[in-house]
Design goal:
eight-stranded antiparallel beta sheet, elongated, 227 residues, 2 domains, mainly beta, ten-stranded antiparallel beta sheet
Length: 227
């Protein structure tokens, strides 16, 4: 399923959609109650879902409209809407921040295995508060060394899981938050996670022609800029 998800305060997220942390295919079903009884609608027949009161308004492609209640598919029992945003990663939107989703046809099923390059090691430059800057191969938080590994953090209640290959730079802003800029121009102030707070164990930088890496404490990092 592919669509555009509108949220309170955080704008629109576009990409492949996983509904209620479960339904992701067109033949999966949305369940709910109407005044006339229970209904079960396949997602490939749904044009739009809009949160409304204790349920949701569901517009189907035939032009009919239903107000559905009584199911965690359509009320605050929903576990959240995950959007796989190209160039960013997985964004998990809780029900309370969800406004609506408009589904789109013809987007296929996403990238194939062959579309992904062989993983590379992280490389870039670390700018320090004291001691200038250092450039080389990077081990982030003492354990992430490949571009396919994930940076985790929250923008308010929206939870991000971001492959490092999509990140242009990371700049700590205080003890709890970092500004993360993506290669596609998107940016987010992420917090509430080890990767982006002072719980980060620090950075190792392996410089060319040096046997031992340089260790940089997180509190001494001004910005990390990836190649």
């Amino acid at each position: 399923m592919y669509g555009k998800v509108d949220t309170y305060r955080k704008g629109i997220f576009e990409g492949f959609v996983i509904w209620d942390h479960d339904e992701r295919m067109g033949d999966d079903k949305l369940d709910g109650d109407t005044r006339d009884g229970d209904v079960s609608i396949t997602f490939d027949n749904i044009k739009r879902i809009e949160r409304r009161g204790n349920g949701s308004i569901v517009n189907i492609k035939s032009g009919r409209e239903f107000y559905l209640t009584g199911s965690n598919d359509v009320n605050n029992g929903n576990r959240g809407i995950i959007v796989m945003v190209d160039g960013v990663g997985k964004v998990d939107i809780p029900w309370r921040d969800f406004i609506s989703v408009d589904f789109e046809d013809g987007k296929g099923s996403g990238k194939s295995y062959a579309d992904y390059n062989t993983p590379r090691g992280l490389k870039g430059k670390v700018i320090k508060y004291s001691g200038g800057e250092v450039e080389g191969s990077i081990v982030f938080d003492l354990d992430e060394a490949l571009e396919i590994e994930l940076l985790e953090g929250k923008d308010d209640e929206l939870e991000y899981n971001v492959p490092f290959r999509n990140i242009k730079s990371i700049a700590p802003k205080n003890y709890n938050f970092s500004m993360v800029k993506f290669r596609n121009g998107h940016e987010a102030l992420l917090g509430n996670g080890r990767d982006v707070s002072d719980s980060n164990s620090g950075i190792l930088v392996f410089q060319k022609n040096r046997n031992e890496p340089q260790y940089i404490e997180w509190r001494n990092v001004t910005e990390i800029i990836f190649d």
